[in-house]
Task: structure prediction
Amino acid sequence: MVLLSGGLDSATVLAIARSEGRQCLALSIVYGQRHHIELEAARRVAAAIGVAEHVIHTLDLRVFGASALTSDIDVPKDAAGAPGIPVTYVPARNTIFLSLALGYAEARDAEEIWIGVNALDYSGYPDCRPDFIDAFQQVIWKGTRSGVEHQTPRLLAPLLHMTKAEIIREGTKLGVDYGSTHSCYDPSSDGKACGHCDSCVLRKRGFLDAGVGDPTVYTSDER
Result:
């Protein structure tokens, strides 16, 4: 079971899982984010790499707000690497997403849950760190029938200790079409990436460091 956002990282995770012979299920979540462009990207990625089933679940986190991705708070620009947890952090998002993924995985008897969190080139979110992954594995083992009886599903985060450049090189080697993915937090109405939010800055830097051409269409010509 792969959590598939349509972004660069989750597409790479799906490609890795498929390359290792897994039959994959994919879960994408419409959570009230600022746009639906990444959901369209998730559909493209699922179709291109191949999944046995792709579930799209709607859960509107705008009822809580408190994030630049689920409310009218402005998305910070050119602020990647600033101290503290940025306002693009969505309260408990990965905890919520993994809980849904766990329910889906257990219902389908899936033995693994794959997630594309990364603790190196990331925006500083606490739910992208190794101790969070370890803690949620304990939730699985202690709080589900499959966990108690079979110690499954196992939670896999293959990108956790990789740089963005390493992720891009790995995905390129596996044939991921990164032009079909979407990472921007604040795209234009026609789907172009802003080029200046944390996610865009990390993505651009990753392609540059990887020595791989960046297929992203940005609102400016800066690359």
About this structure: The first strand starts at residue 2 and ends at 3. The radius of gyration is 17 Å.
